[in-house]
């Protein structure tokens, strides 16, 4: 007897609710990442799951999983890289008119 084919409508994916991050939580997350870098350690070392589990224990956010924290950090990195790319390409006029410190203040 041939195995039954499963239609895509029959496959149920486990979904978690989308988390809304407060400005305070984002700031605390950035502070923890900076603390990690300043201490000479690398982010996500020795492995990502242990790093984010430990980080979540330190941050003590309500209703947050380590995978949500990992995704938030990933998206913050992407935004930072896109902002740096913009600044390095089209944002030079902003730097020459306002200065680097003003630019940094506006993105943070």
Shape type: globular
Low-pLDDT stretches: none
Mean pLDDT: 80
| Share of residues in strands | under 5%
Rg (CA only): 20 Å
Class computed from helices, strands and strand pairing? mainly alpha
Helicity level, as a percent range?
55-70%
Order of helices and strands: HHHHH
SS field, number of helical segments: 5
Rounded to the nearest angstrom, the distance between the terminal CA atoms is 62 Å
* Biggest sheet features: none
State the total count of DSSP E strands. 0
Commentary on this structure:
It is a single chain. The chain is globular, with a radius of gyration of 20 Å. Helix 2 (48-59) crosses helix 3 (66-89) and helix 4 packs across helix 5 (100-107). The chain has helices spanning 23-38, 48-59, 66-89, 92-98, 100-107. It has 108 residues and is mostly helical. The chain has five helices and no strands. The chain has a domain at 21-85.
């Amino acid at each position: 007897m041939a195995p039954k084919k499963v239609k895509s409508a029959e496959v149920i994916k486990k979904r978690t609710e989308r988390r809304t991050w407060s400005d305070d939580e984002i700031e605390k997350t950035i502070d923890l990442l900076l603390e990690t870098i300043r201490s000479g350690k690398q982010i996500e070392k020795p492995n990502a799951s242990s790093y984010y589990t430990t980080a979540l224990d330190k941050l003590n956010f309500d209703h947050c999983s380590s995978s949500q924290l990992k995704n938030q950090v990933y998206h913050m990195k992407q935004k930072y890289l896109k902002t740096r790319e913009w600044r390095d390409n089209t944002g030079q006029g902003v730097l020459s008119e306002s200065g680097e410190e003003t630019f940094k203040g506006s993105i943070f």
